[in-house]
Please model this.
Amino acid sequence: MQLWMDGTLLNPGEGAVSPLAHGLHYGTGVFEGIRAYETAEGPAIFRLDDHLDRLGRGAEAIGMPVDLTLLRQGCLEALAASGLKEAYLRPLAFYETGGLGLDVAGLRVRHFVAALPWKNHLGEDHDGIRVRTSPFRRNPSRALPPLKLCGAYVNSILAKLEAGRAGYDEALFVDDEGFVVECTGENVFFVKGGRVTAVQHEDALPGITRATVLEMCGAESRPVLASELLAADEVFVTGTSAEITAVSSLDGRLWGPGPVTRDLQRRYQDLVHGRTEDHGAWLTGVTDAVRL
Ligand code: PMP
Model:
């Protein structure tokens, strides 16, 4: 693991943050979850600039003057110094000292990156995850924009806890009208008659893996009722950490391994490892980008 803060690689034990950090008290920060994969040219970060762009939109929403160039350099330096061939990168920008009022103007902004070894948080040795419809509603976008704002994740944590206590792997958010929103950290897709559909909802995070899969298979994107998911041939979820993970059950409705999901999983792995001709621009190599 390698940590980096405000332009400097940290040694173990370094990286002090004030207990008065505004972000700690109110969740006033914005983060990303990014993966780096081993490629023939060395470790490469998948869609780094798209992730930083989304972080920038979150920062703008909370009036934060984030330095995206600095954070980008932090991602490259932390990954290179970690020595990891594959890693999870966690950039985080948060308000720290300067006041505990709710006016954020003038607060100190800290820039942080961690490069960590990583495995799919939903597990890898299974034929799919067991999902339960959550009794919780997703943060409505008119109350909290669907971006990676730190405080917004308490909503996901509540749903995840509830699903875990009931013996499930993951929770599915559905809205008051019965439309599917997303899972706690993944977007949702289904397959019916060989056709792939991406769930679209204004309260869902605009996922980068979702956009990648849309581009890979030309799936349609539209609002989807929960009843349509239950009638699907295959259901899968997407996310940087989850990649493409099959759903093996939803509220007791069971699915066996799906051929379309399997095929997309293989193609996604080829893409992120740079084994395909197209989309090379989505991979940022560390070896030539950083001189340590
Ligand atoms: N929804 C939520 C709530 C998430 O936290 C994530 C993970 N970032 C996703 C969807 C998937 O987004 P991405 O593919 O960009 O990782």
